[in-house]
Amino acid sequence: MEQEMLSPQQQVLAGMAVRDHHIHAFFPITFLDNGKDARAETSLETLKEKVLDLSVAQLSDRLGWSPDDAKALQEPAWELVMAKDNAAPDFYPHVQQILGRKGEASRLCRAFVLKTPLLRRMKGENNRPQDRLLCTPFRQAAIRRCGVASLDTCIDGARLFAFRTGIAILDIWWHYETDGPLQASAVLEGNYFLSHDNYTENDRVEIERHELSPNLLRSIAQALLPEMEAKPLILHPGRRILYSVVKLDQPTDKSTIRLLALRLGHRQTTDYQPSQEAQGELLQPFPYLCHCSALEGGASVIFDADLTSDYVEHFSKGTSLHIYVPLLVASLHNHFWLLNQTEWIPAHRCKAGSRGESEDLEKIYEQTIEFRRYFHLPMVSHISLHNAFYRHSQETFHIHERLQYVEHTTRDVAELVKTRRTQWLARVSGAIGGFLLTHELLEALSSWAVPDTRVWAVEIRNASPERLEQLVSLVEHWDIGIFCGSILGALLGLWISWHFGTRIKEG
Q1: How far apart are the first and last CA of the chain?
Q2: Which residues pair with 246 in a beta bridge?
Q3: 128 CB burial (10 A radius; 0-12, 13-18, 19+)
Q4: For the segment 87-144, what is each residue's pLDDT rounded down to a tens digit?
Q5: Which of 11, 107, 137, 346 has the fewest CB atoms within 10 Å distance of its CB?
């Protein structure tokens, strides 16, 4: 591509080489009905058994790919992350627990890592393992922007975080390869293509090699999930969340690294021009490191100012993989759990004021308390930078405000249900009180309208047949009158309680 065809910002990105990078795609799954299962811990253990039972042979059949070693077909595809293998000493113990980093000791989260190299290696020539490179083709507009027709994509690994709240998050990460230096603009185009499902088959260059499309990426993610008997684990078909870790080949100025972080975090190409208001989504602890948090995911861009820093050298495969990605997963878990809880609020599940609605409110209240107790954490690490990154992602997803919204709304709805039930009880009490009061009054009147039982024997002994018939008729009709009068008193009591309750409410 001719350089004069590029805009000034596109020329800057076209000349910005990427030394190392990883792209993480997060796929949310709900394996419980909004986390409302009374035996959430049991369901988490069931999911653990299903994940560990998934073999390489089953995964190979689902994907149609063969491993580089046929002996590995009977091995399990996943293994449980144990504390000795992947413990982050910088995290507080309670954070290690909610990220599944205490192995069997954790009951809040189970973390798994993909054991098989099936996604990244294949049997090549002379039966030697080689990288499984999938081709990511670009559309014509993307080729004009970055000057590259396609990228070779290698999937490096996958992890699965399953929480007892019923939320599971699948993390698949990969890197791009190309002939010559990899430019930052090409990374932007690759992320944009793989995170959107709105591409067309006719608007791209024909590639003969096996292509990695957004649909295939989602199919790979679906194949990594176990089959559940009660409820299948289905991925959301929409856009996916990406977190990009990019290490530049050479130092750059502050504005450029911040612009690149914004575009990576929002999965944007060079066609998008972020405004100054978007700068608040950035966290730059060092001149050579910039984080971006967004609803679309996030990004971390870093470069080595003096080419001697071990922190920068191991950032992509060390610090970001074991520190920043788990912290982002913790925030994403909060985000998706709150989405599930928020969906309950406008849903008309039960009759207003019914017992079922009260039981739903009790469940929501208990789950919110449990969530705040175990998963809503103000501090996560001994390191200030890690706490700053965690707070930044929490603020991006508005976790604190949304949790308050759920709590306040649940409390208000509970008060409304309580008021409705109280009004119903008051009206029933008014009807019963009116019935009993009228009945007692009519019984008192019967003392002079109906012959006294103490002289009833004398009355009927000396009464004529006509008089006796009148007395019997009077007693029978009076009982019916007492009953009908009591019914009218009940209706009057119901009307009085309804009328005064409405007047008090209006007042």
Answers
A1: 76
A2: 21, 301
A3: exposed
A4: 467 888 888 877 766 655 567 888 999 999 999 888 777 777 888 889 998 888 888 8
A5: 346
Q: What pTM was estimated for this model as a whole?
A: 0.80
Q: Return the half-sphere exposure (C-beta side, CA atoms, 13 A cut-off) of residue 322.
A: 15
Tokens of 38: 């009374």
Q: How far apart are CA 435 and CA 496, in angstroms?
A: 13
What is d(CA 207, CA 372) in angstroms, rounded to the nearest whole number? 50
Q: Let me know: does 447 contact 440? Beta carbons within 8 Å.
A: no
Name the DSSP class of 237: S
What is the Cα–Cα distance from 3 to 146, expressed in whole angstroms? 10
Segment 424-461, tens digit of pLDDT: 676 677 777 777 777 777 666 666 555 555 555 556 66
Average pLDDT over residues 460-481: 65
Scan for tokens 């990288």, then name that residue.
131
389-429 residue pLDDT tens: 999 999 999 999 999 988 888 787 777 777 766 766 766 77
Average pLDDT over residues 252-271: 89
CA distances from 116 to 61, 101, 233, 251 (A): 14, 20, 21, 37
Neighbours of 414 (CB within 10 A): 16
List the structure tokens of 411: 């409390």
Q: How far apart are CA 469 and CA 359, in angstroms?
A: 59
Torsion of CA 125, 127, 133, 135, to 10 degrees: 50
Q: Are 27 and 48 in contact (CB under 8 A)?
A: no
* Nearest by Cα to 106 from 95, 120, 121: 95
Residue by residue, what is the 3-state secondary structure of 112-177?
EEECCCCCCEEECHHHCEEECCEEEECCHHHHHHHCCCEEEEEEEEEEEEEECCCEEEEEEEEEEE
Contacts for 390 with CB less than 8 Å, ≥ 6 apart: 327, 330, 331, 377, 380, 381
